[in-house]
Amino acid sequence: MQQEEQWSSKLGFVLASAGSAIGLGAIWKLPYVTGVSGGGAFILLFLLFSVLIGFPLLLGEFIIGRSTGKEAVSAYKEIAPGSKWHWIGYLGVFTCFLLLSFYSVIGGWIVQYLFYGVTGMMGSFAGGYEGLFTEAVSNPVAAVAAQGAFLLLTILVVAKGVQNGIEKMNKIMMPALFILFIVLIVRSLTLDNAMEGVSFFLYPDFSNITSESVLFAMGQSFFSLSVGVSVMVTYSSYLSKKESLVQPAVSVVGVNLFISILAGLAIFPAVFSLGFEPAEGPGLLFIVLPSVFDQIMFGKVFLFLFLALFLFATLTSAFSMLEIVVAALTKNKGGGSRGSRSKAAWLTGLGIFLVGIPSALSYSVLGDATIFGKTIFDSADFLVSNILMPVGALLISIFVSYKMKKDILRNEIIQGSKELNGLFTLWYLLMRYVVPAVIVVVFLNVVGVI
Asked: What domain of life does the UniProt record list for this protein's source (predicted)?
């Protein structure tokens, strides 16, 4: 049975999927992971993983969802009844739950920045923007309250459903964010010594690459495209059978890579020009970009607009994470009646909030609590990005290429154009042999087996 929830158009589906993929992955995480992982060489690996591994996986998740018209868990059950393969769906639900628990903490930081901007307090902290970021993450009450506020916004939109909530918001957020990014880049590239930052970001120096950097690049490609957690299975289940899957997949990957490059070009020239360290860590974007806006006429106004749009971009990813859990909980109601969807969104959001509190306190009262030498926040990030997502991606690649009927796969891909037969052959070879092999080799290399 097809989902009762539906995207009103292919554009709505593309923008929602791109919004899920972009969010913090491209704007917040990629720059700081690039900074600590060697710059241009890491970016090159990220691009290769995104195109050769991420794109086939994204298309595979689209096929699973659209061919069944069901959310993640039910989709796997329908394709492989009586087996354990539906646990891939449960793994995705769990991963999204855990991911949103620490993702909402970063969303809370943005909420705090907006609050400081509205109240005029942003420039009142000792140590400038570094002091501002320290205050945002180290004040336990403010960090937890802001995390809760971010989750509240997420719940309110997801509770309204696909067309009325997620789709409408994305049609406004994505174009506006792109425009403001262009303004940022123009100013950042015209700063003194900006080309040093461009060189660091785009010139591949492989002497800085380690096996862990390769794992991070692969994990980042999964994180930024939202693959490996079956989010795109659920999103594509809301897409009409008449629409092509290839075009949205290409659009999502293309937009994600484009925004990723824009984020790097906005941040790294300013990092080198203004004397910051590229390996600043999770606070890189929150410290550097406000400093760039200080160099622009009406910078405070532009900074507020950017923070608002950055919050929107962050919310688009949060919507998808909460949506996969809500869809799983309401699966017996064809996507959920309004009442059941709302109840599921609120209960799930509360659970995520409680689980995320330790991550919110990782830079204050739980700062000394570590797991394998990492803070609770960093441990949750590492577990999701570099273990759960790659494992989920490996299982999805095996499921699609070995459990699904080849005719179904071909029909889904060539929908709308018979000329895509050649693409199907290439995609099938990548999914069946290359994707699982690369994921396994990267893991074995990191643990020292090879």
From this structure: Bacteria
